[in-house]
Amino acid sequence: MSRTTIPSRALRLVAAVGAAGLLVAGCTSNSPEASEDEGGGQSGAVSNNDEPGETVTIGFSGPAADHGWLAAINSSALEEAESYEDIELRAAEGTNDPSLQISQIETFINEGVDAIVLLPTDGAALTEVATRAMEAGIPVVNVDREFSTPFAARTTVLGDNYGMGVSAGTYACQLVEENDLTDPVIAEIAGIDSLPLTQDRSQGFADALEGCNQEVDNRVAAEFTVESGEAEASNLLQAAPQIDILWNHDDDQGVGVKAALDNANRDEMFFIGGAGSANAMRWIQDGEMEATVLYPPTQAADGIRVARLLAQQKGMSDLVQPAVPRRIVLDAPVVTADNVEEYLPLGFES
To answer: In degrees rounded to 5, what are phi and psi of residue 266?
Structure first.
């Protein structure tokens, strides 16, 4: 697929949200080869952080795996811990009950683990116990859902919800230009509207579309489930007899969206997904979907890596700054037929 110039305002937005994603590179590129300065200056890397060090005990508490992305969060954390011989992982049972998760963190504190990686069921509800862990000298790595105060975590690892919207909207603008779409009908199927993450995704999408003088013409909100995706997509299709570009926020609910499209024999649109499921990537390979925007399911795995560095009192070797950053925001790239093979190993099963 050819690539055209991205509208300048949208390009600035992508640059802004993408720059923060570069921070995580220090976690994932620790080989000496990856750290050589190609410009002839001084190399920033001074050590290989993947070499075994002092054994550390990391407590991990994540959500119940009732959603493909959440299941991938948990499994990626477990697999990452197993890849290091100097990590002893104590993984609590996944739960959507804040009270149970609080008791899990209290157990980790009493056991004196070296670090805690926590994707909170409810960031506000888990803030107090996470703060207690920090006060006990146990560094907490907060994943995906932020606490109410920065004092509750040493480092926070986040996906970029606003950046997802920017990436989807920027790609939509590219499709408008490449295909010479005149007055295109652009539709959006959001997730749960009351959640800040959904609001951020929609705002990023609208902001990027503004860069090419477009806007969302038809919008519905689902609930991140297959059933709700199919129901809301069916409603949308009835209300909009013609759609040129459709962005669905979540690939798990996208299974239902795709079923509604197939049932209605609607294939006139460019269908863009969100989160990066394996089935969405297979649809891209088969020509049944245009693209999906990644919301990395590796956040907890990155959290495990960062917790190991903190517990071993190391920094990110590819950064000149010796300390682990307090905030790491991962990138939200667009996966298309051109690069799907690269991202397919990161895809999760819906």
So the answer is: -105, 105
Find the farthest-apart pair of alpha carbons in the chain and give their distance in angstroms, rounded.
Answer: 63
Name the 3-class secondary structure at 116.
Answer: strand
In the chain, what percentage of residues exceed pLDDT 90? 79
Which domains occur in the chain, in start order? Answer: 50-158+297-314 (3.40.50.2300), 161-294 (3.40.50.2300)
Name residues whose C-beta falls within 8 Å of residue 120's C-beta, 6 or more positions apart in sequence: 98, 101, 126, 130, 142, 145, 147
The tens digit of pLDDT for each residue in 95-123 reads 999 999 999 999 999 999 999 999 999 99
Which residue, 140, 104, 95, is CA-closest to 122? 95
DSSP 348: B
Could you tell me which of 287, 286, 285, 288 has the C-alpha nearest to residue 254? 288
Ranges of the chain whose pLDDT falls below 50: 1-46
- Strand 245-248: give its sheet, edge to edge: 218-221, 186-190, 245-248, 270-275, 291-294, 334-335
Is-contact 255 196, C-beta < 8 A?
Answer: no
The answer for residues whose C-beta is within 8 angstroms of residue 279's C-beta and 6 or more apart is 251, 255, 347, 349, 350
309-316 long-range contacts (CB < 8 A, ≥24 apart) are 309/27, 309/49, 310/115, 310/139, 310/141, 310/154, 310/155, 311/56, 311/57, 311/58, 311/114, 311/115, 311/139, 312/53, 312/54, 312/56, 312/86, 314/47, 314/49, 314/53, 315/26, 316/26, 316/27, 316/49
Token pair 């070296």 in the structure block, residue? 114
Instruction: Check the CA dihedral 82-84-87-88 and report its sign.
Output: positive
Q: Are 220 and 243 in contact (CB under 8 A)?
A: no
